[in-house]
Amino acid sequence: MAKTPHPESPREARMAESPREARMAESPREARAADEPRRGPRLRVWWVFLAIVLVVYVLYTIWLGGAYQTAGPFVAGQCSAVDAPAGPEDILILPDGKAALISAQDRRNRQSDGGLWLYDLSRQPAVPQQLAVPAGMPFHPQGLSLYTAADGTWYLQVINNRSDERRTVEIFVIEGEGSALKLRHRGTISSDLFISPNALAATGPESFYLTNDRGSGPRWMHAVENILQLSRSTIVLNDERGARLAAEDIAFANGIALGRDGESLVVGSTLWRMLLAYQRDPLSGLIKRTGSLALPGGVDNLRLDDEGDLWAALHVNSFAFIGHARNPEKQSPSRIVRIHSDLRGATRVQEVFADPGELLSGASVAAHHRGRLLIGATFQPRILDCQLDPAKFRDID
User: Fold this and answer.
1) What whole-number distance in Å separates Cα of residue 334 and Cα of residue 374?
2) Helix then strand then coil, % of the chain, to nearest 5
3) pLDDT > 90: percent of the chain
4) Across-strand partners of 394?
5) Alpha carbon 93 to chain centroid distance?
6) Pairing label, strands 99-104, 274-280
7) Residue-level pLDDT at 246
8) Could you write out the DSSP letters of every residue in 59-91?
9) What's the mean pLDDT when you consider all of the chain?
């Protein structure tokens, strides 16, 4: 009599299944335990990779910020320190070379009033004299720009950080000359696109390009942008059609200068430590990036002189500058460079001033007119008034 085969027990059935089918039949906890030996090495590899990326990024940030770097001392001529209101961050020399305008604001006490000051260039050194602005207007100035109309009228444009919520551009007409110069307020321009305005380049009585040195968001986001080197800065164009974005994707857009031909625009990127060149359509105002130039420091304000040369103030060590911003006793090294482009398009960069922070800490602007150079600072209550010797300029490779 044939024997009927006994059915397999549940355990024997599982042993007969394939390993994949067996794992599918196991509980989730048993399946995870079976996969753990394989997953462990893969996770370790990813963690090692992420750690390497993080270390490389930190080292790159330290290198790009100029940690442990210093400058000078070097002066291609003679400089005199001149007492000035705290925070003479921007300086503009008028086209006739008779006087300069200083924009000053105590940035360690932002609630205090700022002002515009006249510096008589017929004297060396001179004593800054404060200029009157409309009474009752909150006035905390920053960047300056000047437009000369066809009839010779000078229109002064000034960034005014009225409050954390409202940033404007004030338009003045300059009347008189020399030590008798006065300002007449013409009007105020505001826009939601003026997020964190830093510098201006005038293209008309009330038209201009404006740099935002950070993107929108709370103040702490600015620190995140700097640490991660995020490209959230913008350039805004304001003209008769209103304000609109002209360019984006810049890491801490700072100084800006319009070429004498009206068809070129240069913007400084502090975090990238370079100049960005743009081609401009004078009719539409649209701009297109065409190139860049690396510099030995974080670019602050830019000034174009009457010979067409560009002058830039550079923060050599960004970490030292942050320390100086928090503590006036800490020094921040600076360099001043002249950038000359010839008719063939060749660019020559020359150093005219370098200082570890002893003469002037945290230089922010260099305004030049026929051998006379005025250097301002972001925080200190002084400027430097220099007479330069071109034979002593040093080429930078």
Assistant:
1) 14
2) 20, 40, 40
3) 74
4) 351
5) 21
6) unpaired
7) 98
8) HHHHHHTTTT-----EESEEEEEEE--S-EEEE
9) 89
CA–CA separation, 392 and 397 (whole Å)? 16
User: Over the stretch 259-273, which tens digit does the pLDDT of each residue have?
Assistant: 999 999 999 999 999
- In whole angstroms, what is the distance from residue 267 CA to residue 253 CA? 7
3-state secondary structure of 42: helix
Residue 184's DSSP bridge partners are 173
| Distance between CA atoms of residues 368 and 189, nearest Å | 29
The structure tokens listed for 316 are 């050599």
Task: Name which of 270, 262, 377, 395 is nearest 331 in CA terms.
Answer: 377
pTM of the model: 0.86
The torsion defined by the Cα of 377, 250, 64 and 60, in degrees rounded to 10, comes to 150
For the chain, the structural domain boundaries read 74-395
* Nearby residues of 123 by Cβ (< 8 Å), 6 or more positions away: none
Encode 118-142: b = buried (16+ Cβ within 10 Å), e = exposed: bbbbeeebbebeebebeeeeebbbb
Of 147, 85, 145, the C-alpha closest to 118 is 85
Which residues have CB under 8 Å from 166's CB, separation 6+?
190
For the cut 90, the answer to whether the pLDDT of residue 344 exceeds it is no
What does the DSSP 8-state code read for residue 132? P
Query: What are 303's strand-pairing partners?
Result: 311
Nearest CA to 266 among 243, 246, 293, 245? 293
Please answer whether residues 118 and 132 qualify as being in contact, where contact means their C-beta atoms are separated by less than 8 angstroms. no
CATH superfamily name and code, 74-395 = TolB, C-terminal domain (2.120.10.30)
CA gap 191, 167 in Å, rounded: 8
Q: Return the half-sphere exposure (C-beta side, CA atoms, 13 A cut-off) of residue 310.
A: 29
CB 145, CB 104: distance < 8 Å: no
Tokens of 252: 């801490």
**Count of beta carbons in the 10 Å neighbourhood of residue 285:** 18
Q: Which DSSP helix (H) or strand (E) runs through 319?
A: helix 318-326
d(CA 48, CA 267): 39
